[in-house]
Every structure is written in structure tokens, then in C-alpha cells.
């Protein structure tokens, strides 16, 4: 009609104001609109002729507005108004029916709600965990402009990628590139130092960082300014925790001096807020960068890498161009580059670095993001399993509600209304489940936190949290409710009410498919759990080539750093009853990170660079670590040992010796052969059998051990007699207090330190455990419900069978086989899938156990057993029923 | 019998519908009213009154013809119902009875 009108008026060229027409069409009741608008238009066209267009238009608008009166606004009531879907009476009816259905079938309702609640608990926990993982290092205001400068080193046919850069790089970058506003070095290694203020002595751990640090990162300062926080060599920035410990109050600490390692005084120039838990840089204090270079003169050399470099680029900077310019940057400064050895710089965004930390052949290759994805999938699986329970039980029991659907349809419910009703019911149940889930989460969050090492809280004040809850409820409700809703609402009312309703095999097949799907997921999780558990166990118990039990580290510091005190302390230790042997080492034996190319020997090809891992050690190192050795250990009996070396088998092979026999001595053995390291010629005095001095994710590389000349760089490694560790510790502490009173006695156990290396695997292992258990539990809940339903349906059949002579065993088998068939199919489908997934995961380990066939058999048998147990309760109950009772009811 | 109350404007509108006979619809009634009473009448007020009268059962309506100047929209044509007619008659009877009850020379003279 509108079109017609505008066409006609378009021909005449005069039309009333469009907006007024629109407004009128909007507010005027539809049944009045035609006459009202018609009258107005009639008057309008007369006025155009009489007074001209402008006046007519104005009056038209005025008159149209005049109809803004109750009579015109009020919509016409229809004679038989169909109640709105959201009409209060209907809602009340829906709620009542829903409640009656819940109350009438307590078992099924409990199974449904409990299953949904468990599914939601696990997926909510995982979502919280993922949210926390994603937030790590992602809270800096300058986040999008912050980058790690990464280095890719290519030598010996390998590509190594890491954050290690020359210590002078940050300042040089800032000078050379106008697009870099801030640049700061950061020592990747953790410094544990002794702080002394008056009589308060404690160990603190921290780092050295460039002066721009606080300008780049959003770490609130409680005292001091970002500019002055780290700008002089004796500046010291401390956390609130440290400030409160030594000075009682953050502001009181400013300007005070702290003696570090009983040697140098530093002045507190800034106090920063304790770092949030979702940060990957952990430190309680920061020292000035100049101080770091003074302490480590090797950092001035462009050829030595170690510390990290962080930069902040200008917001308008083109990172791709900067990356291209950075790539060859090091060549200008390091003339060694380009022959057998090459190095490139590139950028990685700070917020990405935590989740995407792995590099393979110089290219980004996953990292923690894989766990985030993995658990995201697990969360979805668990929720899906719970939803399937709901769908299965709802459709299986649809016979009971078919009559309700029939009656509703007869009195005029449209299909869409019924769909709405059933989905609404599912949403209601889901909300109920959500409440229970929240209660659960509140209870288990503390243990979840201690398991994952996180500090997750329910952020009730955060809108996103509620959004997440709402989202998960709606998704679950829709997922669980949609199929039953569509299925039930499709029933034919005539057939339902006549009582001749027969469900086709389609619905049953679909249900069976869902059960299979559930058990595929459960079996996947079981296999995953077993494999992860075995691998974690393999790591924890693997013979690394050295004995990490009964071994403890104590840093050499304070008074002990002089040669004579070091020697006295060592001699005293060796005299103690519980101590088996004593040595020292610069880096922990499970984590020797530094390496060098500065090793040569007669006949070495000058064009090949071989990188050797290296560290300095004390006497008796092989004996203390219980390393298998050909040749001899470093020993005080040989004064020339300071230029002698121990190498591992890989190094011997790499150099070219064939370490054929273990007795040592004869020709062909490297023992006694000359070797030059860092320009100091010496001899190989022994070859140690390969041991894992780095994470099992990486392969064993060549290693050189040299004798330390600087006790201050060392940590004592003390091997105690088995079972006497506690007594030994007590006497070591007494000795320490006597010889080194200014420093707290800080020791660490080798096995604990080692296990920390694989923390994420251990956490993943135990999480997988719990979630697999949950998955199978929820699936079994569903199975239990279905079994109960089938048993109920077949009561008569069972009664007849029993009357005709079937035994209990017959009946149980009859009821169980149907379900076991499904579980069996599920296992068949799940096994290859599980094998593929686990094989992919295992690729991350250089040293791993295989995924063996018996794992699948075990998982399968487990799944069948659990399923059988679940079903048997119902089937035995049905089989035991007295046929007189079950047949009497008609 | 309790007569339904009619407002003055409603009474006038009802009478105008009667005046117009078969052609009583919004615009015509408004024009006629303006002409007869000499006061300006808003079309929305007329519609409101018609609506109320119909609700009270004094008018009935049907849809009439469409014309071009109405943009093809139909008119709603009103006719007075029996109830409407009786009400008008009642009002008139009451008035006349009242007029007849006034003694001569009680009202001040209005003609010069």
C-alpha cells in the first residue's frame, strides 16, 4: 500500500512530509490507520490546492501529531487472543510441568542435573585456567609495542633459537633505530642474593634490568619514579614484600641502603608493587644494568650471549620493516659471523612469548598454547558428554511426555512454542546445574590452584566472568535441549493420543550413536591419561646418568668465596658422618645452559664450529654425581688440573675419538689427548658417560667440564649417605652458621629441582587424570540412566522370559549386550584416534616411551569393565524382579 | 432507564453524522462541524469522538470507497444506530421540556 501511495503522489509531485507519515504509521493502531491516514491525506491534498504546499505540509504534520491520543495508540484486542509464549500464565504452566517432571523422576533428574553440573564444573575450571594462561604477560599498557629481541643461531647444521643476546645490544639498538623508544636488558638467570639491613638478613631473588624497564612495563611504583628507578650503578628497586620485610613500609624504604652479599651497598631508588601472579618474569628486586656489566665483563663482548633484550617500539612503527633491518644487525658487530656460524635477530611480541615459546629449526613451534588448546578441547568434550546424557535421557523418555505434547498441540500449541518450551526447560535445568557447579568450584578451587600452581579466584565483580557463566549456560542448554525439543515437538498428535505411537529405529540409532560418541571421547581421555602418566613417570624415574637422590646444592657465597675458606669448608664437610662426598658446580647438573665454540684440538677443521655445553666444577665431580667415568676425576692431587678437561661421550665422538673401550689408556681413547679451551691448552683426563644435563625435550649435546678457579661462581654439591640427610643437614647448617654467619643457609635438593623442570608435564598429567575420571563418570551416569530406562521398558518382557524359564544370567546378558556392543564399537573407533593424538604429543620429547598396544587394550578393558559395572546394577535389579509383580499390573 | 451520558462535543458530532446521512466520514464531518458551528475543530478530536460513540453503540460504521486524493485508502462511513437516535431524541426531549418549563420573561432578553 505504501508503494502504491508513494507512486501516486510521486506522479503529482506533492506529498505530505515523510517523517510524519512514518511516525503516524508507527504509533497509530493498525486497525485505525487506513481511515485516519486517508482522512489526513484528503485534507492535505485539498490544502495544497488552497494554501500551497508548504502550509499544507506543516498542517499535515501538526494534525498527524494530533492523533497521538490514547484511542489511536491502543491496539485492538482480538476476539480470541492466543497467549504469548511469554505470557505469565503460560510461564507458570511451563514451570509447573517442568517441576512435576523433575519431581516425578527423581533418579533421571538427579542424573541429568548431576551430569550437567559435573560437565560444567570441569569446563568452567578449564575455562578459568585458560583465561589465566591467556592473561599471562598480557596486562602491560604498552603491550602491543613490547617485543623480545630473539636470536637465531645457525651452526653445525643446527638452528638454535632463544632470547639470549649480547649484553650491549639494548643500548646499541636504541641508538641505531629511531623507531625503538625504549630498550632494556634483562638477565634471564635468577640471582639469589643475600640482603642485609641492620640485623635483618635474608635471601632474595631478582634480576638485573635496563634503566627503561619501568617505563616499558606496567608495574606500579609505590615510591620512586620510572625514570630514576634504575639509572645509577648502585640503584636498587625492590618489591613491596621486600620493602615491608626490611623497612616495614614501602615509602620508608626509599633512599635507604641495603648491603648485598655482604659486599656492596645499594640504594633503594624505587619500590614496586608485588608482581601479579600472571607474569612470567619473577623477581623481588631489580639492579641496574651497568652494575651487571661491571660484574660480568664478558657481557661487553658482542660474541657472548646471555641476557635478554626487550624493546618498546613507537606505536606507528612498522614491525615487519624493523624485523628485516634487525635480521643482519649482529654481523656489523661480530666479525666472526658469516663463516661457519651465523646469527640473526628477530622480534617476538611480549604478550605472545609466554604461550608461543617453543622454536624448532628457528621457526615458532607451539609451546604452552598447545596445552591451552588441548584443554579447551577437553572442556568442550566434557560438556558435550554431559549434554549427550541429557539428550539421550530426554529422548528415551519421550514416550512419557508424548501425551503432553499431543494435548498441547490439540489445544493449539504451535511447534515453535513447544520447541521453546523444551529448550526453556533445558535452560532451567542447566541453570540449576550451574548453581551446583558454582558451589563445587568454590569448594575445589583451592586444590585446583595448588595443583596447577595458579592463583585463580572467582571474579564475581568481573562482568566477563558472568558473561562466561551466561554463555556456558546458554550453550549447554541449547546443546542439550535442542534435539529433544525438535524430536518431541515433531510428534503427530493424532497418533500420540490414539496410543499408537511407535518410535522408529531412527531415534534409537541416533541415541546409540551418541552413546558410542560419548565412549569414544572417554576412551580417548583414558588412553591419553595413561600415556601422559607413563611419560611423566618415565621422566621422573629415568636414569639420567647421574644420581639425583640424596644430593643437595648449597651456594658458595660470603666468607666462603675465598680459596682457603672454600677449602676448609669442604674439608670440614668431608669429615662429617652423614656426608658421602662433596664437589661443586657452576650450574645445576640438570640444567647446564651455557655453551661455547672456543674449543680446539689437533686436527680440527677450522671451518666447522662445534658448540660445546660447558660449566666449571670442583674436585670429585664424577664421584659426587655418580657419573660413569673412563679416566680419572678432577683431584687435588694434580696441580695441573686447572687446564685439564672432562668431556662426555658425545663430545668425544664429535671430536673424532672412538670410545671403544672403557678401561682407558690404549691408543684410540681420548684420555690423555690434548684439548684447548679458551686459549688454555690442556689434556682430556676423563670421558664421562652421557648423562642428561638438559631437559629431556632436547638431545644430549657435547659437554666439557673444566675445573673452577673461582669458588664464588660455584655451588656445593653435597651427597649425603642414604637415610642420613636430616642429620647431615643439621651439622652442615651448624658449620655454615659458624663460618658464614652473615648469610642464611639456603640449600636445595637436586631431585626437587629436577622435578620442577617438568612441572607443566606433571600438572598436565594430573589434570588429565582428573578429567578422564570425570569424563568416564559422566558417561557412565548417562549409561546408568539409559540402562534403568531400558530395564523399566522391558519389565514385562523380562517377566515373561522368567516365567518361561530364563535364568538370571540370561536376563542380565540380554540387557547388557546391547550396551556393551556400543562401548566396544567406541573403543574400536577411539584407539587409532588416540594413537595419533598421543604420538603427536610425544614428538615433543627427545627421550620418550613408546605408545604401546597394551595401553589401548587396558583402556578398552577399563572402559568395558566400568560400563559393565554400571549396567549390571540395573540389569541385575531387573532380572531379580519377581515376575508375578511385573506381570500383574494389567 | 439510565441514559448513557453524552458530552457536548459528542452530541454535536452525533448530530452531524445524522445531518450528513450516507456521506458521514472523518473529513466531511469535520468540515460540516466547522461550517455549522463556526469554530475550528481538529480532525483528531473528531476521530476520537467517533471512536467513542461507536464504542458506546450510538454509531455503526462500514468501510466505504477509496479515492485518489486519499492515496487509495478507504473512508470509514458512519451511520447513527437506534441507540444513538434514541439518545438524541431523549436529549432533545429533556431540553424542550426544560425550555417549556421556563416562565416567560425569566431569561434576560437578548434581542435589542
From TrEMBL, chain A:
Keywords: Cell membrane, Membrane, Transmembrane, Transmembrane helix. The keyword Cell membrane applies. Residues 109-327, 544-733 form the MacB-like periplasmic core domain. The chain crosses the membrane at residues 110-130, 374-396, 417-445, 465-488, 509-533, 770-791, 803-833, 853-873. It is found in: Cell membrane. One of its GO terms (cellular component) is plasma membrane. It comes from the Bacteria. It is a multi-pass membrane protein. Residues 377-493, 771-883 form the ABC3 transporter permease C-terminal domain. GO terms for molecular function: transmembrane transporter activity. This is Macrolide export ATP-binding/permease protein macB.
UniProtKB/TrEMBL annotation, chain B:
Residues 19-89 form the Transcription regulator PadR N-terminal domain. It comes from the Bacteria. SUPFAM superfamilies: Winged helix' DNA-binding domain. This is Transcriptional regulator, PadR-like family. It comes from Fibrisoma limi BUZ 3.
Amino acid at each position: 500500500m505504501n508503494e502504491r501511495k508513494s507512486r501516486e503522489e510521486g506522479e503529482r509531485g506533492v506529498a505530505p512530509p515523510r517523517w510524519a507519515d512514518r511516525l503516524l504509521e508507527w504509533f497509530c493502531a493498525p486497525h485505525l490507520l487506513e481511515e485516519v491516514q486517508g482522512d489526513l491525506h484528503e485534507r492535505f491534498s485539498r490544502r495544497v490546492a488552497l494554501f500551497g504546499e508548504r502550509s499544507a505540509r506543516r498542517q499535515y504534520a501538526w494534525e498527524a501529531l494530533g492523533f497521538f491520543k490514547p484511542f489511536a495508540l491502543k491496539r485492538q484486542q482480538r476476539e480470541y487472543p492466543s497467549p504469548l509464549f511469554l505470557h505469565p500464565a503460560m510461564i507458570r504452566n511451563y514451570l509447573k510441568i517442568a517441576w512435576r517432571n523433575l519431581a516425578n523422576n527423581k533418579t533421571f533428574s538427579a542424573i541429568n542435573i548431576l551430569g550437567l553440573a559435573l560437565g560444567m564444573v570441569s569446563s568452567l575450571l578449564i575455562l578459568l585456567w585458560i583465561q589465566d594462561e591467556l592473561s599471562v604477560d598480557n596486562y602491560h599498557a604498552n603491550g602491543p609495542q613490547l617485543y623480545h629481541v630473539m636470536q637465531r643461531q645457525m651452526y653445525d647444521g643446527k638452528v638454535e633459537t632463544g632470547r639470549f643476546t649480547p649484553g650491549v645490544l639494548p643500548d646499541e639498538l636504541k641508538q641505531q633505530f629511531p623507531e625503538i623508544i625504549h630498550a632494556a636488558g634483562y638477565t634471564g638467570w635468577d640471582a639469589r642474593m643475600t640482603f642485609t639491613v641492620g640485623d635483618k638478613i635474608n635471601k632474595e631473588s631478582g634480576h638485573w634490568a635496563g634503566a627503561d624497564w619501568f617505563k616499558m612495563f606496567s608495574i606500579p611504583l609505590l615510591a620512586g619514579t620510572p625514570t630514576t628507578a634504575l639509572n645509577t650503578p648502585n640503584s636498587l628497586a625492590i618489591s613491596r614484600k621486600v620493602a615491608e620485610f626490611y623497612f616495614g613500609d614501602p615509602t620508608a624504604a626509599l633512599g635507604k641502603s641495603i648491603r648485598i652479599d655482604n659486599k656492596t651497598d645499594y640504594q633503594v631508588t624505587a619500590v614496586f608493587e608485588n608482581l601479579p601472579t600472571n607474569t612470567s618474569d619473577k623477581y623481588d628486586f631489580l639492579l641496574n644494568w651497568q652494575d651487571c656489566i661491571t660484574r660480568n665483563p664478558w657481557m661487553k663482548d658482542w660474541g657472548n650471549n646471555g641476557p635478554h633484550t626487550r624493546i618498546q617500539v613507537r606505536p606507528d612503527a612498522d614491525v615487519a620493516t624493523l624485523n628485516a633491518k634487525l635480521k643482519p644487525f649482529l654481523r656489523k658487530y661480530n666479525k666472526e659471523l658469516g663463516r661457519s656460524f651465523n646469527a640473526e635477530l628477530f622480534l617476538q611480541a611480549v604478550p605472545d612469548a609466554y604461550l608461543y615459546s617453543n622454536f624448532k629449526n628457528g621457526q615458532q613451534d607451539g609451546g604452552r598454547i598447545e596445552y591451552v588448546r588441548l584443554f579447551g578441547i577437553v572442556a568442550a568434550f566434557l560438556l558435550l558428554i554431559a549434554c549427550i546424557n541429557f539428550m539421550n535421557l530426554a529422548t528415551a523418555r519421550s514416550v512419557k511426555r508424548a501425551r503432553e505434547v499431543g494435548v498441547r498441540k490439540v489445544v493449539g500449541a504451535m511447534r515453535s512454542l513447544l520447541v521453546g518450551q523444551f529448550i526453556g526447560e533445558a535452560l532451567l535445568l542447566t541453570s540449576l546445574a550451574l548453581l551446583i557447579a558454582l558451589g563445587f568450584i568454590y569448594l575445589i578451587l583451592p586444590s585446583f590452584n595448588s595443583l596447577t600452581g595458579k592463583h585463580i579466584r572467582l571474579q564475581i565483580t568481573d562482568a566477563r566472568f558472568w558473561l562466561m557463566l551466561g554463555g556456558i549456560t546458554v550453550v549447554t542448554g541449547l546443546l542439550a535441549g535442542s534435539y529433544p525439543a525438535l524430536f518431541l515437538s515433531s510428534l503427530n498428535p493424532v497418533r500420540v493420543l490414539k496410543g499408537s505411537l511407535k518410535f522408529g529405529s531412527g531415534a534409537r540409532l541416533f541415541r546409540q550413536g551418541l552413546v558410542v560418541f560419548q565412549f569414544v571421547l572417554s576412551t580417548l581421555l583414558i588412553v591419553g591419561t595413561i600415556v601422559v602418566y607413563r611419560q611423566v613417570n618415565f621422566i621422573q624415574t629415568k636414569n639420567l646418568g647421574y644420581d639425583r637422590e640424596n644430593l643437595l646444592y648449597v651456594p658458595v657465597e660470603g666468607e666462603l668465596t675465598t680459596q682457603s675458606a672454600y677449602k676448609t669448608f669442604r674439608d670440614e664437610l668431608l669429615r662429617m658422618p652423614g656426608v658421602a662426598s662433596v664437589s661443586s658446580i657452576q650450574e645445576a647438573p640438570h640444567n647446564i645452559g651455557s655453551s661455547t665454540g672456543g674449543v680446539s684440538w689437533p686436527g680440527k677443521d677450522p671451518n666447522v664450529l662445534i658448540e660445546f655445553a660447558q660449566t666449571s666444577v670442583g674436585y670429585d665431580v664424577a664421584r659426587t654425581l655418580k657419573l660413569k667415568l673412563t679416566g680419572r676425576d678432577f683431584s687435588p692431587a694434580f696441580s695441573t688440573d686447572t687446564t685439564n678437561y672432562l668431556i662426555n661421550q658425545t663430545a668425544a665422538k664429535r671430536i673424532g675419538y672412538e670410545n671403544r673401550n672403557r678401561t682407558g689408556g690404549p691408543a684410540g681413547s681420548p684420555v690423555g689427548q690434548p684439548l684447548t679451551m679458551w686459549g688454555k691448552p690442556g689434556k682430556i683426563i676423563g670421558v664421562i658417560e652421557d648423562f642428561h644435563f638438559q631437559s629431556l625435550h632436547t638431545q644430549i649435546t657435547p659437554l666439557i667440564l673444566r675445573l673452577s678457579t673461582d669458588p664464588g661462581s660455584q655451588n656445593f654439591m653435597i651427597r649425603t649417605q642414604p637415610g642420613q640427610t636430616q642429620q647431615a643437614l643439621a651439622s652442615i647448617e651448624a658449620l655454615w652458621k659458624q663460618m658464614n654467619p652473615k648469610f642464611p643457609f639456603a640449600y636445595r635438593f637436586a631431585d626437587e629441582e629436577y622435578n620442577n623442570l617438568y612441572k607443566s608435564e606433571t600438572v598436565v598429567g594430573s589434570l588429565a587424570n582428573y578429567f578422564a575420571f570425570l569424563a568416564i563418570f559422566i558417561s557412565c551416569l548417562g549409561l546408568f540412566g539409559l540402562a534403568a530406562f531400558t530395564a523399566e521398558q522391558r519389565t514385562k518382557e523380562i517377566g515373561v522370559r522368567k516365567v518361561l524359564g530364563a535364568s538370571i544370567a540370561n536376563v542380565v546378558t540380554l540387557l547388557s549386550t546391547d550396551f556393551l556392543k556400543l562401548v566396544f564399537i567406541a573403543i574400536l573407533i577411539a584407539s587409532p584416534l588416540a594413537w595419533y593424538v598421543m604420538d603427536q604429543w610425544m614428538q615433543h620429547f627427545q627421550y620418550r616411551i613408546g605408545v604401546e598396544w597394551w595401553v589401548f587394550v587396558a583402556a578398552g578393558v577399563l572402559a568395558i569393565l566400568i560400563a559393565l559395572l554400571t549396567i549390571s546394577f540395573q540389569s541385575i535389579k531387573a532380572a531379580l524382579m519377581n515376575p508375578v509383580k511385573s506381570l500383574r499390573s494389567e | 432507564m439510565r441514559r448513557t451520558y453524552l458530552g457536548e462535543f459528542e452530541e454535536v458530532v452525533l448530530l452531524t453524522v445524522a445531518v450528513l446521512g450516507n456521506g458521514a466520514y472523518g473529513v466531511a464531518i469535520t468540515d460540516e462541524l466547522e461550517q455549522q458551528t463556526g469554530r475550528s475543530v481538529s480532525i483528531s478530536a473528531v476521530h476520537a469522538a467517533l471512536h467513542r460513540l461507536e464504542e458506546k453503540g450510538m454509531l455503526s460504521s462500514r468501510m466505504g470507497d477509496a479515492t485518489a486524493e486519499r492515496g487509495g485508502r478507504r473512508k470509514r462511513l458512519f451511520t447513527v444506530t437506534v441507540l444513538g437516535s434514541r439518545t438524541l431524541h431523549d436529549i432533545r426531549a429533556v431540553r424542550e421540556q426544560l425550555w417549556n418549563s421556563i416562565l416567560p420573561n425569566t431569561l434576560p432578553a437578548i434581542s435589542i
